[in-house]
Amino acid sequence: MARGFLYRVYQSRLRRRLDTTSLPCHVAMIIDGNRRWAKQLGLETAAAGHRAGAAKMREFLEWCDDLGIPMVTLYLLSSDNLVQRSSQELADLIEIIAELAEDLSHYRNWRIKKVGSDTGLAPGLTAALDAAEARTLNNSGMHINLAVGYGGRTEITDAMRNIVAEHMKGGGTLDTLAERLTPQLIGEHLYTGGLPDPDLVIRTSGEQRLSDFMLWQSAHSEFYFVEALGPDLREVDFLRALRDYSRRKRRFGS
Predict the structure, then answer these.
(1) Exactly one of 34, 81, 92, 199 is catalytic; which is it?
(2) How far apart are CA 107 and CA 152, in angstroms?
(3) Which candidate, 110, 111, 78, 105, places its Cα nearest to that of 93?
(4) Does residue 13 sit within a domain?
């Protein structure tokens, strides 16, 4: 009980001392470690870990919203997961993500956007994501990107294909296409076209890699790696990440 009290005091102190003028406007979260969490607890399947991770992500979104962070992206299912996970685990993940999207679309005044490719996704999951996006289209609260069926390399490839197709449809040539290609044009054709790049990318579980997540958008992002497994993430961990971010001097390549 004493430990819990001290934790709450420390958490409150961290929150009070945050420089609210230097908080990130867009936080991207790579939720990792759900399967290890379930295994450490001796649970029979990874599904329990994924459900705990999904519950933690709703809690994480509340932390962000309460601090006034306007945009969050959650990396929930990669395109690699679609071919590398077992059929049963994938089926469980699809159900959990669909339930999460449904839940979030009815919570607060959040606006949901699907980010990723429909290729390989179960029709039911695609329908759930589309419904959540449509249901919250006119909401004015925190913007939440759900990265599902997402792969950074595929995203860039798709962007280039769309640019080429649009250019050729308009009667352009390869020479004029080369003249038009700019980072701005490519950025406009990404799944996140029109949205700001993430200022801060957080990953749980102690792993220090991007795993094909927002390769283009994170070119100038700050990174923060948390040792806690996804379901064990604490608000204190998040506040520490924000404190660390506020103390960094962003250079944007300069």
Answers:
(1) 81
(2) 29
(3) 78
(4) no
Number of domains in the chain: 1
Q: What does R_g of the chain's alpha carbons equal in angstroms?
A: 19
Is 244 labeled as catalytic in the residue annotation? Answer: no
Q: Is the CB of residue 227 less than 8 Å from the CB of residue 32?
A: no
Tens digit of each residue's pLDDT (9 = 90 or more) over 109-132: 999 999 999 999 999 999 999 999
| Per-residue model confidence as pLDDT tens digits over 8-59 | 888 888 888 898 889 999 999 999 999 999 999 999 899 999 999 999 999 9
Evaluate whether 76 touches 100 at the Cβ level (below 8 Å).
yes
Measured distance CA(78)–CA(45) in Å, rounded: 20
Question: Is residue 109 flagged as an active site residue?
Answer: no
Q: How many CB atoms are located within 10 Å of the residue 70 CB?
A: 15
Look up the pTM and report it: 0.93
Does residue 99 fall inside a structural domain?
yes
The active-site residue out of 32, 65, 197, 199 is 32
Q: Which domain holds residue 142?
A: 24-151+197-246
